[in-house]
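Below is one such record:
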Amino acid sequence: MSRQYFIGLMSGTSFDGIDASLVQCNAPDAPITLCEDLHVPYPPAVQQALRQINASTPLATVLHWHNTLPTYYADVVQALIANAEIDRAQIMAIGCHGQTVWHDMQANPPISAQLGNPSHLAELTGIDVVADFRQRDLAAGGQAAPLAPLFHRVLFKAPHPRAVLNLGGIANITLLSENASATSGFDCGPANTLLDAWCRENLGKAFDEAGEWAASGKVHQALLEQLLSDPFFALKPPRSTGPELFNLNWLRPQLPPAIAAADVQATLAELTAQSIAKALRQSGSKAEDLVVTGGGAHNADLIRRITAAVAPCSVNLSDALGIPADAVESIGFAWLAHAALAGIRHDLSAITGAPQPLPLGGIYPR
């Protein structure tokens, strides 16, 4: 069988940039080989513009970014191909998640909106594109998120029960039984989205490097308990959330007077850790280890807090298993592109709540 290459592109709710992976995968149930990966930050002006999109943003602005983002994606694809020294004709498809700018399961009907026109990307790259991965699940009554458990099952199955934690803007968790014979997953709550927002507002920095600022503060226990009392944390799976709920407008009214900014950051980090531990307890998980992926894996203070909160379950970064934490989601969307071309239907009933197996992703030929 000839080698089959796929590219995955992911830009998450941290709005920090684009993660890209080139993988070899000859069948949806075959091992995935990571050939090349890279992260390209969005220019600061793009980051700011995307973060500001909300329910009142003019439609013309939203459509501008829908048609402009593929230019950035195409540049990343070109860089990835150049780094890998591969002929683009060998690439079967690009799996492009797009940039989520709105995810609201309380809307009627529910909404999950990703920007990045796949037709433009196919035209710019000359490669088939698979995109719109969340829309079919949403149409079938699912939460449209998380999708990561589908490829966590392929990447991280083990002979023992395992949990996989993705620390992006939102923390989501995958629960794998022995040899991944059963897979479930759901969103735990905020991760980088609140930590980064509070850091930007108070320090003028994009993020808290290694969690050093949070580590300098003290957890305000009463505030932590107040934040954990939000009804979201009591919801049973399937459940999903986003910055539409967990943002500074949610946080500010709950802050006690005269609290130090560093103490708020410490409390937000502890909120992430405790909400993850609570989610594991609520699920009845028997996981022996927790594999951490996503940008939050670089936050040493956050990892320390999570390790303490989920003990005696051991905690390891996916890098220790040979898969870079920053690349897991882009690898996953490359795999989902392969699955789409192969006509695979995915059972999401224990993840998003979709009632029947579904194909994920629309195909946009070059």
Summary: Residues 5-146+326-364 form a domain with the Nucleotidyltransferase; domain 5 fold (CATH 3.30.420.40). The longest strand covers residues 91-104.
